[in-house]
Amino acid sequence: MSFDLGVALLGPKYSEPRIPVMEHIWGLSRNAIKHFSGIDLIRQPQRINESFRSVARVFEIDLLWGGGLPTGCPELLDWDNGPPTQLDRSGKPVIQWGVFSTARQEDGRHFLHIPKPESVDAALSLDPLTLFPKSVDEYEAEFRQAYLAMLDSCAGDCCPIPHHYTTAFHWPLAIYGFEMLCEAGLQVSRFAAQMELFAEVSRRITTAWSRVPGVRGFILHDDLTTTRGPIFRPSWYRKYIFPHYSTIFAPLIAANIPIIFTSDGNCTEFIDDIFAAGAEGLNFEYLVDMADIAARYPDKILIGNISSDVIARGNRRQIEKAASSCIEDGKRARRFVVNVGGQLTHDMSIENLETYLEVRKALCRNGRLN
Predict the structure, then answer these.
(1) d(CA 319, CA 352)
(2) What domain range includes position 279?
(3) Looking at residue 317, what is its pLDDT?
């Protein structure tokens, strides 16, 4: 595990023998955190940063998806001895996310503070610049503080990579929900006009991040696809979504900050579009063929693509097969990074996590083909 190794991987000339690792460990269970760090967070919540830094070292993590490690005094819930849905401090129902909690999504909606539009007309009448009015300067001040906190939380153990979750397509998904998006996206004239405003919010955000000193890489996220592939026809994305990518990406590219694009689902159809827009890397799920993408893009940062479901519910043979297959295929790319897609979660047993670590550590230390 190494901050320096993570930084080196983000550069164009990475040639270290060990294969780097990116994981998201916030979702691990209380018992897993206690097993790997020796700290029971429900009994000792003040040691939260110490515990997660210990876990990060055990898992030999070089890159962190989306930010730093937990600090301070966040709300922790005892899910072992409580119901599957509990109330948070504000009295809102929440579901488990490791030792933390998260709001239950409504049909893919993330921005639950924004009332769900009652109709497609109401959805397309929303003004993104009113909903998200911050200027570039306001975002920059916020992000400078956030990035310093990320670095401090990791204390040099690993390299945090900040992110923007709603690049373009995910804006309306997060506000409308899946079903209404499917209807709204077909009203192409109004949808296109609104997407331009969502893209403007994203351009402000990427411009602000491009001004933050010391940022080594940046993650842009859009869940473009489901497990079956694109939601709309590919031509629809190429007309109403991808043209915005080049302008959203541009401030980061101009600042020499490599962009790692992330999408859930089977985004195979759009890999060429994503790289053509200027992404330097791609973080993807097991549904994308690692061997194929490593052969076609051997110099890109390729992050993936072990199935979290196999780690959670597979037996030892299945876990060994999933990890070894991914790494054997991926290491043909010079800047391949191992990652469990969908993050490490509270439904993964300690036994399965230990099996995964045993296999992954051995294969990563054996290094690359070239």
Answers:
(1) 8
(2) 109-283
(3) 97
pTM of the model: 0.95
**Does some domain include residue 31?**
no
Residue 167 domain-assigned (yes or no): yes
- Cα Rg for the chain, rounded, in angstroms? 20
- The residues, ordered by sequence, that sit 6+ positions from 310 with a Cβ below 8 Å of its Cβ are 286, 318, 319, 322
Looking up residue 236, the CATH number of its domain turns out to be 3.20.20.210
From CA 188, how far away is CA 126, in angstroms rounded? 15
Residue 354's region, left for phi above 0, alpha for psi from -120 to 50, else beta, is: alpha
| Distance separating alpha carbons of residues 360 and 184, to the nearest angstrom | 44
Residue identified by tokens 């967070």 is: 41
At residue 215, the pLDDT reads 96
pLDDT under 50 in the chain at which residues? 370
Q: How far apart are the first and last CA of the chain?
A: 21
Based on the structure, what is the number of domains in the chain?
A: 1
